[in-house]
Predict the 3D structure of the following.
Amino acid sequence: RHQLQGTLTAIEKLDLITSKVLTQVLPHLKHRVKSGDDFIAKCLASNTLHGNHEPYQASLDIESMYPTLPTCDKALTIINHYLQRYDIDLLGFSPHHITAMLRFVIDHIYAEAAGGYYRQLSGIGTGYHCSGAYAEILVDNMYEKALSLTPGPQRPLSLALYVDNSHSMWRNKDHCDQFVSTLNNIWPSVRFTREEPSPGYQTGSSELSFLDILVRTVPLPTTNQYGLEWELFQKATHSGRYLHYDSHCEQTIKLNIVRTESRRILNRCSTRKLAYQHLERLRINLANSGYPWTTISNIIATELNKVPTPQPPNQKKNADFILKVPYTNEAALRRIRNIVRKSSLPIRVTTTSGIKIGSLIKRDLINNAAKKCECTIHQNGVQCDRAHVVYKATCTECNVDYIGATSRPLKDRLGEHESAVRLGTDLSTLGEHCRSSHPEVVTKHLGTRDWDNFFSIYKIDIIRRSKDTLGTFLAESQEIFRRKPALNRKEELNGFIH
C-alpha cells in the first residue's frame, strides 16, 4: 500500500475533477432522459399514433457495461470531442488536460482484496466518480453512430436513453434487429441485449416497462390505427409500506407523502381510468400504514380536481436563513412558525428528528468532545479537528516546506505523519525526509504517539480551507504550483495547474 499511496491520492484528485467536468455534458445529450416525466414529455406524449401497423417497442441494455467499456485512445478522443462541442465549465483546464487526467485515472484503476491491490485491466472502475458520466457519453456516442449508419425510414420512431438502458419504438421488428446488429459492431467488447415486449409482438396489445412507466401499444377502437398508453410501473417486490402515521415526525411530511404519491400516479398514467386503479391501491397501502381514510380520500380528491396548467417560474424569494428546530409536537412547531412569520425576517423554519437513543447514551462523550481540546496538537497551535484544509509542514532544521491536504480531520492525517516520522517509513513524505535527513528523530517506538518529537522537527500551519473534497484538492494543487515546496514529490510538483 505504501508504494501506491502517492498514486492513489492523485487518482482521487483527478477522479473528482474529471467527474465534475463530465457530468456537465450529460444535460446536453439529445436522447438522454433523467426521469419518468422527462421520458413521457420527450417520447410518449408526442408519439401517440403509429399508423395501421402495430409498432414494435424494445428495451436495449449493455451486458456488463463497466468492465466492457472501451478505454483506448479512440474512446478518449470521443470524450474530448464532447468536451469541445458544448459550452461547459472546464474548471480552468483545457479539454486536452481533462482527457489527460481521465487517461491517468483509467490507467490506474485498483481494487483492494485479500490484503493486496489489483489493477483492473479492462473497462472502467464502477466505484469511481467519473465512471457514470464517462459511460453515458460513450453510450450516447454509440447510439448516435448507429443512427447515422441507419437509413432514415429504418430509424426508431422514438428513442430514450437512461445510462445503459434504452427504450425505442420501431415501425417493425426487422428494423430493430438491424439496429442492434449495427450497435454490436461499433465496439467489439460491448454487447447489447434486448428485452422483448410481453405478451409478444403482434398480439394486439404488447407492453414493456422503462424506468417507472409501463408502455403499452393498443389498437384504437374507431380506426385501424395503433396508439400508446402508459401507466405507473411497480415491481412485484414493491412492499407498499410507507412512513407510519404514528411516527414521531412532522405532520406536513406525512401529508406530503400522500400528495406526492397521488401526483406521481396521475403524472405517470395516460388516462384517468388507469390512474384510478393505482390510486385505489395507494389508498389501501396508506390505510395499512395507519393513515386516516378521510385524510387519504380528501387529498386524493383535491389532486384529482386540480386542472393541469403550465406552472410559471417560481417568483418566491428563497429565505436567507434556515432555522432548524427539533420536532416535539405540532402545537409547538406552529407557535414557532407564527413567531417567525410575524417578525418578517427572511427565515424558513424546518424540523430535525428527535434525539436518538444512541445519542442519549453518548451525550456525555459528545459534550466532552465539544469542549476546548487540550491535546498536544492543539497546544502547538493547530486546529486538530478542522477538515477540508490545506496545510504546510516546515522542517525546523532544514527550513524546507511540504504542502499537503486532507478532507478528514487534520489530526487524523497528522497522526499518519507522526507514525511515519517515529518509525522512519516512507508512508509519508515527512517520514521519508526524517529517515534520510534527520535519523536522530526516528525512535522506532511502536504503539505510542510522540507528538513532542514530531513538533520538534516540524511546524504545522493551515494555509487554506475549503468546503468540500474537490475544492480541497484544487486548493492544494494551486498552493503547490505557487509555492514550489522542496519536500513535495515530483508528480505533485508537476501538478494540475498550468
In short: The CA atoms of residues 60 and 166 lie 5 Å apart.
